[in-house]
Every structure is written in structure tokens, then in C-alpha cells.
Design goal:
By secondary structure, this protein is α/β, with parallel strands linked by helices. It is 42% helix and 14% strand. The protein folds into three domains: 63 residues, no CATH class; 114 residues, Glycogen Phosphorylase B (Rossmann fold, 3-Layer(aba) Sandwich); 162 residues, Rossmann fold. The protein has 14 helices and ten strands. The protein is globular and about 65 Å long.
């Protein structure tokens, strides 16, 4: 913030109580600045009444910080603006840079779709270069209006670390949780604070694969419930793996269950068979999550369990025909390991053209 930001500071203090979570490690001062500048930008564009209505409905998803991003770009005068496809500051930065004639590079996070949780007013962004991690994403961004000549199949730098993992990365963890060589580890990556049908999910897997061990890994933002309350089943039947490194947990798993988390992509890049959980499984709130936010199953990169009855069959199939799914994923996704260099090359190339 800078001198003259009195209105933004006032807005930030007003919104702080309903939005700041100290568990994130973000300071109150940073949250105040973020909320205040973002809301002031909303007021400048929509008027205070509509800004308040939109914030009341969407919370921080109401923001598209065009004003603050213009201020930052004017201050730092970048040669290139690089951002992911997050719906607020990042998307605003790309849009402002385009308006100012500055070259832009967009790094597509997942499959190039407009997520349902993004309000309709969040604009699509067509950058000068769009870096994607899969053929699926390339097709989707072109269908959304990106010229094919702008698309680069680079892979996603955030997944490069997976290439450094040893084949034995998960062996110690499997032993630690008491899994012998004959057993199978089925990992569920949870995306909500509650898992109301977890008991049914566990029962379906146990019925189909009696020697399976079931583990749950919760998203870092959704670990508020005590483990016993969250699991709702005896610890002897389910292992909670919140604290272990994610890469090790994925390496230890034989099958991964997910809905639409980016962990699903990490799992298939790690060579693990993936099962996506459909709405009939009852494991999540369908108003918030959907397999069609990340429809890997539609491309043969995952199996779909439409309900708990089909889940056991899907787990058995994944364990039996496991190599077929990773093989399909390798056809669709850029393998991890060299994506950061590829993206960096695209940034340098477009900077030289400017």
C-alpha cells in the first residue's frame, strides 16, 4: 500500500474479520492490504452498492484486481508478464498486460477448462503464449478461443519434482503402516472438511479387495476436523496420511481415488492408476465438486466409479489392469522433469521478440 490508500485500508480493516485465517501463516497486515486494494478496485469498477452485493455473494471470488495489477505493472515495467490461470490477481495481471501491449505467457494449471467454482464474470484469458501440460488441455484451450499457434506443449513446472523420485520412494511408508508384499494400498485424496460416505467407501473396497489397506490424505486447507471424527471408522481399517510428504504417499499407493484435485494429475504422472469418484458415491458435496471439473476419465486416463457399488469393481480392475491407465496417461501428458526449462525458453523467446 502507499500514501493515499486510506479508502483501501478502511475496506481492508472492515473485511479482515470475515476473511483472515491466521492458520494460513499470512499476516494481518498482508490480508488487510490484499482485501482493501481488491475491494477498492471492485468499488471503482462497479460502484459501492454492486461491489458489496457481489462480495456478499462470492467473497474473495468477486475480485479481479485490474487496478492493483495495473499499478504494479506500471511500477515494475516488466518485459513479460507470466501467470497461471488462477481467477483473480493472476488473470487480472495477464489482462492488464495485454491492454498495455506487454507480452504475456499463461501457464495452464490443469486441463484448460473454466471451473464451475469460477463465477461467470471471470474472463477467459488469451495470452500471447499458452503453456499446457497435456494434449487434453491443448484441445480445450483452442476450443475456448486460443489460437492454435499460441499453444505450447511444455508440461507443468510444478510437477517436475516427480521425475526425481526413486522407484522405491514409497517402500518405507508401506512398511511403516504394516503393509506386506501381498497387500495393496488404496489412497483417497480428500478435498472437503467432511467425508460423510467414507464408511461406505471403505466397506466397498474391503469387500472387493479384502487385503487392501485404505489411506486418506486430506487437502491442507481441510484438516480442521479431528481425525477420529473425520474418519468415522476404526483406525485399524483406515490410515490418515496428512503429515507425510505427498510425493512419498503417492509413491506408496497402488491405486489413487480422487474427484477433481490436481493430486489426480500428480498420481497419473507418478504412474499410479486413478479412479475418479462420481456423485453417486456420496463422498462429497456435488454443489462444490464434480469429476467433470477434471474429466480425466473421459480421455481414458482414469476409471470412473459412478457409485459405491461400482467402486469395488473399479479398484479390482485398476489393480489388475493397472499398467493400461498410466500408459494412456503417458500418451496424453508431457512427462515431468523438463517443463520448467521449456516454459523458460518460451518466456525468453517472447521477450526477445518484444
Amino acid at each position: 500500500m502507499r500514501p493515499g490508500d486510506d479508502d483501501a485500508l478502511r475496506y481492508g480493516v472492515e473485511l479482515l474479520a470475515g476473511s483472515h485465517d491466521p492458520r494460513t501463516g499470512i499476516s494481518k497486515e498482508e490480508s488487510t492490504a490484499y482485501l482493501g486494494l481488491s475491494f477498492e478496485d471492485l468499488v471503482d469498477r462497479l460502484g459501492e452498492s454492486e461491489a458489496r452485493d457481489r462480495y456478499a455473494r462470492y467473497g474473495r471470488h468477486a475480485f479481479l484486481q485490474l487496478g492493483p495489477m495495473r499499478r504494479a505493472i506500471e511500477l515494475w515495467e516488466p518485459d513479460v508478464v507470466v501467470a497461471t490461470t488462477s481467477p483473480k490477481s493472476e488473470r487480472a495481471a495477464l489482462r492488464v498486460a495485454q491492454e498495455m501491449g506487454i507480452p504475456t505467457v499463461r501457464i495452464e494449471d490443469v486441463l484448460g477448462l473454466h471451473p464451475r467454482i469460477h463465477p461467470a464474470f471471470v474472463p477467459d484469458v488469451i495470452a500471447d503464449v499458452v503453456c499446457v501440460g497435456s494434449r487434453i488441455a491443448a484441445t480445450n484451450v483452442v476450443a475456448a478461443g486460443v489460437p492454435e499457434s499460441h499453444v505450447r506443449l511444455t508440461g507443468n513446472p510444478s510437477f517436475d519434482r516427480l521425475a526425481a523420485l526413486a522407484p522405491s520412494a514409497g517402500v518405507a511408508l508401506r512398511r511403516q503402516i504394516g503393509l506386506d508384499d501381498e497387500g495393496s494400498l488404496v489412497l483417497f485424496t480428500a478435498e472437503e472438511d467432511e467425508a460423510p460416505a467414507l464408511r461406505d467407501l471403505v466397506a466397498a473396497i474391503e469387500a472387493a479387495v479384502p487385503r487392501a489397506r485404505i489411506a486418506v490424505r486430506r487437502h491442507p486447507n481441510f484438516r480442521h476436523a479431528e481425525p477420529d471424527v473425520y474418519l468415522g471408522v476404526p483406525k485399524a481399517r483406515v490410515t490418515l496420511l496428512d503429515e507425510e510428504p505427498l510425493d512419498v504417499v503417492l509413491s506408496a499407493a497402488d491405486v489413487v481415488l480422487s474427484v477433481s484435485s490436481t493430486t489426480a494429475i500428480e498420481a497419473i504422472l507418478r504412474g499410479r492408476p486413478l479412479i475418479q469418484l462420481g456423485p453417486g458415491t456420496g463422498i462429497y458435496d456435488t454443489a462444490l465438486l464434480s469429476v467433470d471439473d477434471l474429466p480425466l476419465y473421459r480421455h481414458g486416463a482414469a476409471l470412473l466409479a459412478t457409485d459405491t457399488d461400482s467402486l469395488g469393481h473399479a479398484v479390482k480392475r485398476a489393480l489388475t489392469d493397472g499398467p493400461a491407465l498410466p500408459a494412456r496417461a503417458r500418451e496424453l501428458f508431457v512427462p515431468p522433469g523438463d517443463s520448467a526449462r521449456r516454459v523458460a525458453d518460451e518466456i525468453v523467446a517472447i521477450a526477445r521478440q518484444a
